[in-house]
Design brief:
The protein is an alpha+beta fold and 340 residues long. The chain is built from 12 helices and 11 strands. The chain has helices spanning 14-19, 30-38, 50-70, 79-86, 96-111, 114-120, 205-208, 210-224, 259-276, 302-305, 319-325, 328-339; strands spanning 2-4, 125-126, 130-134, 137-141, 145-149, 152-161, 177-180, 193-194, 233-242, 248-257, 292-294. The longest helix has 21 residues, at 50-70. The protein is globular, with a radius of gyration of 21 Å. The structure holds iron/sulfur cluster. Iron/sulfur cluster binds next to helix 2, helix 10 and helix 11.
């Protein structure tokens, strides 16, 4: 469908791409990105949940620790600056209890030896902000950190999950290592269990978690300044899992992305940029309004429009959503289907 556009995209970040990755990931919807980024509706992003805020606070603490050890003196890596950024420059209150949990998680991460291991992996930098035109496509993102893999600078990201959940969370298959506190213990006094490698270690990152794979592909391209069709890209994820019984586990992933998947994602990124991206302009020239853009038809469903059980902000503006999910009977049928 063709729609009028108020502003083309200035760049594509991994999160923008994933929001629009219709047909690639279940929550992807091109129309959502259109409403949020290309119209003048003034839709802003959802406020950070406690779970998201905890992840940002942990990031701030671990990055400061590493920056100190590496002797990185850039102001952007200072704790006060990172905490101010976490609170969106005063727009969102940082709850002290969340900061306390973030400190506890960092203590355990350190106790398991995961922090020290990053130095063995030649961690290079933390809290990067990279904007790069790669073969004409303007990419932008914030890699958490970089390590060296076979002499190449490769991205690493921390993910914190499980906070506030009533379920016991198992790590995704394919980890290189998994440490967890034993049942019934708290803090560092109770020791830890080293579960070793998962039997599927060596699987491609997209088969472990497709969102991680896409995010780390973007970072690889930005850090390298180019996309190479035959290149094997790799990435690292340290996933900190908070269990409902208070235990903390750390699953670490070091994996490659298959070249087929990397090429498919690059083609999709390039296609979106060609349709929606701002054409190159001389410095200072306002973005060119392209008039109309084409989009895939929106296909509302509960997975797409209400992932994690929360409605996205676009639902308030999306006539397709209202038509499909605004009807109580229709909603009941869909919810019944989701439970099966
Ligand atoms: S409400 Fe659903 S279909 Fe509509 S724009 Fe948002 S994600 Fe897409």
């Amino acid at each position: 469908m063709k729609l009028p556009i108020a502003q083309p995209l200035k760049y594509i970040s991994p999160s923008t791409f994933m929001s629009a990755a219709q047909g690639i990931i279940p929550s992807g919807c091109e129309y959502e990105v259109y409403l949020k980024k290309m119209t003048s509706t003034g839709l802003h992003t959802e406020a950070a949940t406690d779970q998201m805020m905890l992840g940002t606070l942990f990031d701030a603490l671990v990055k400061t620790e590493i920056a100190h050890e590496l002797g990185l003196e850039d102001a952007s890596k200072r704790l006060d600056v990172l905490l101010d950024k976490a609170g969106n420059k005063g727009k969102q209150v940082i709850k002290p209890e969340l900061l306390a949990v973030a400190h506890e998680v960092l203590d355990i991460y350190n106790y398991f030896g995961c922090l020290r291991r990053l130095f063995d992996e030649k961690i290079q930098d933390v809290e990067l902000s990279v904007a790069e035109r790669v073969h004409g496509v303007k990419l932008f993102g914030y890699p958490d950190a970089t390590i060296l893999v076979n002499g190449r600078v490769s991205p690493l990201d921390w993910k914190v999950s499980g906070y506030g959940s009533s379920r016991v969370k198992s790590p995704s298959a394919g980890y290189k290592s998994y440490h967890i506190q034993p049942a019934g213990t708290k803090g560092i006094a109770g020791g830890f269990q080293d579960k070793g490698r998962h039997k599927k270690y060596g699987a491609f990152l997209e088969d472990i978690n497709i969102r991680w794979a896409i995010q780390l592909l973007f970072y690889n391209w930005m850090l390298d300044g180019r996309y190479i069709k035959s290149q094997v890209y790799s990435g690292a994820i340290d996933n900190l899992l908070l269990q409902s019984d208070g235990r903390i586990g750390v699953a670490s992933y070091r994996a490659n992305v298959s070249t087929d998947f990397a090429n498919k994602i690059w083609e999709s990124v390039r296609n979106k940029w060609e349709r929606w991206g701002e054409p190159p302009t001389a410095e200072g020239v306002p973005p060119v309004n392209r008039g109309m853009i084409d989009l895939m038809e929106p296909k509302p469903d509960l997975w797409r429009c209400e992932p994690y059980g929360r409605a996205k902000v676009c639902t308030a503006y999306c006539e397709y959503y209202k038509r499909t999910l605004g009807d109580d009977m229709q909603r009941e049928i869909l919810q019944g289907q989701m439970k099966r």
